[in-house]
Every structure is written in structure tokens, then in C-alpha cells.
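Box S1 | Example of a co-folding query
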Amino acid sequence: MPMYHCLGSVPHKRHTAFRKPDGGLYAEELVGNKGFVGPSSLLYHVHQPTHVKSVRLVRDMNWNSDPERKFRHRHFRTHQLASGGSITMDRVPLLYNNDVAMLFVQPDREDDFFYRNAQGDEIVFVSDGEGTLETPLGALPFTRGDYLVIPRGIMHRYRFTSSPLRCLVVESTGYVRTPKRYRNEHGQLMESSPYSERDIRKPENLVTKDERGEFKLLVKKESRLHEIVLAWHPFDVIGWDGYYYPWAFNIRDFEPRVGRVHLPPPVHQTFEGDNFVVCSFCPRPYDFDPQAVPVPYNHSNVMSDEVIYYASSDFMSRKGIEYGSVTLHPDGVPHGPHPGRTEASIGAKGTDELAVMLDTFHPLHVSRQALEIEDGEYYRSWLAD
Ligand SMILES: [Fe+2]
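Box S1 (continued) | Returned holo structure for fe (ii) ion
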């Protein structure tokens, strides 16, 4: 996140002796991507973060795709997935390519380990539930509608304060950032951006743990899960500063854009990754020309696969979807409003829709798990026109 943040105690100058009350040195650690040139933070640990007691391979985390590679519009009902398990270990892959993956999880228990994704950044959309994301950099309380953005390499653990929990997870090979066109040359979100730095929540309440023991950390790397046992509690940071940390943004803090006539989906863009974007469709008044057609026109999304997660059962251009539905409109065939939706939208005053869209610039694979919750007739659902 290109916004400086500092919690706890840090030395006046970086890379200088920073002493504990007993005279010993705190252990400095740089955490950032792209080695020493990407966004980074400097952490000061009570103990060396390198105290590893054991390492073992737990399992492979490879995904399998639809063997028939069906080409059609698709609809998946995530609420038909079995619920339960861990928010980090029991995510069900739905759609994926080499740039990005969409997964879904409905956890019913807290993890008794720490987790680090060493192969991707994560955007966790909290569709239901609330709790706290605990990290060595402080805590991020979260609630329904939050996007939690967790850069790769940031160790974390979830604590829940309500149930049920339903989370949509976007795992990104590249760095997840705010769209470049929303930022000025100095990195600040411009006045024209649909959200501002004030809407972005940063870690708070840094608690320093000084505990010896056996602390289990599960690391995802190269689609394999490894267990590392640490000799000291990993949340032993006395202070840190920098630009690399988890952050939260609530979808209801996205200020939707409305025009006299229809504005295209890029006005809803919320995040940018490598070869994909994420957009938020939020409640808003409709376009204000009396003859405006508020629902989108048919479109052929050439060089893009469009995925929508419906965070409410209301969506202006669709029928037959429900809360928790996921639709995939692949490149190669047009899509548009369902029968009757265009006429019905003319003169309407607004929409209560809430949805998260993932647009990828390379084709997506459908996972085998997604096949089990597919509405196989969806591609014919426009026929009644
Ligand atoms: Fe579309």
C-alpha cells in the first residue's frame, strides 16, 4: 500500500543499533516484495525471526480443472458447497489461471497455526461474518463487506467474533494495488478517485509477544504446503514502519459513479493486479436521463473473462442468480441483460445490487469442485427473449 504507516517503537535511523531495556539488540527485518526495490516495511523483533526448529512438507495444493473445458456462460452456486473447516486450508478453488484464482470458504473454526502465502497476494472479501486479522504488524478488525488485502509474505491468523463466515478469496500472482489511474504522480489517491486514503484501514493495536515454545506456521509456496515450527512466538515485533502491510477497505466505502446515461464497468474498478482487475458494484441511483437505459448493453468482452460474485440476490441485469452465485462470462460469446431487464430498467430510480467483479485478461480454468455446484442450464437462460 503506497501509504506510510508506523506502529510501536522504531529507532530514529534505520539500520542503527536499537537496544532493548536489557542492552541487547532488537532484530531488524525487511519485509517487502521484489527483493529490495518493491514496497517494503522494516520490522524490529525481540528475537531473531530465523529461529526455525523444523520444516516438513504437508501436502500438495494443486488444483484440477474441468476435463471437458466446456465453453459457455456458466453459473456456480457457492452456497451448495460444503461448509466448515479452516479459512486458510479449506478454501475451494472455483476459477483460476496463472495470474489469479478465485476461491470460496465458509470456515467454522479458528486455525491453531499461523499462515503465510509465499506465492501470492490475497484479497479476502468478507461476504458474511466478522472478526480480526492478527499479524505481526498489528490487528485488522474486519466486518461484512470488507476487502482484506494481504500482501504475500505477511504472516497472519484469523479470529472470528460472529458466524457464519463466508469469504471470497482472490489470490494474485502479482502485487495487488489501487488502480494507477486513481493516483497522482506522488502516489496519493486523487480527488476523482472513488475512495480515498481515509477509507483505508491499516493495522492497529500492536501487541508484542515474547514467548518461547513451538509455534506452527503453514507456508504456501509453489502450490505446496509446508509446516515450519518456530522457536519464538512470531508476533514479537516491538515496532515497524513502511509501506508493506495488510489493509482493509469496505465495499460500502466505494463511492459509485452515476452518469446521465450508462457508465461502463471500469468506473467501478477497485483494485488492480497483474492481468486482472477487481470492481465493486454498489447500491446507487440509476442514470438520470429519462430515456437512459440503466442496465448494461450487450457486450463482447474480447480478451477478458468476466466473473461476478453476487454479494446480494439483487442484480439489475440478471435473473436466476442468488446471494452467493458466481457467473463466468468468457471471452468468445457476448453476454447482456436477461430477458425483460432492459425494458424494466427504463425509468427505474436505483439499484441495491452488491457484487464483486473479477475481470481477467487471460482465460480462466473452471475447477472440478466448481462443476459440482454448476447450474448447467445457465447458458440457455437468455432464450425467453
Ligand atoms: Fe459484462
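Helices lie at 341-345, 368-371. Residues 42 and 318 are 47 Å apart (CA to CA).
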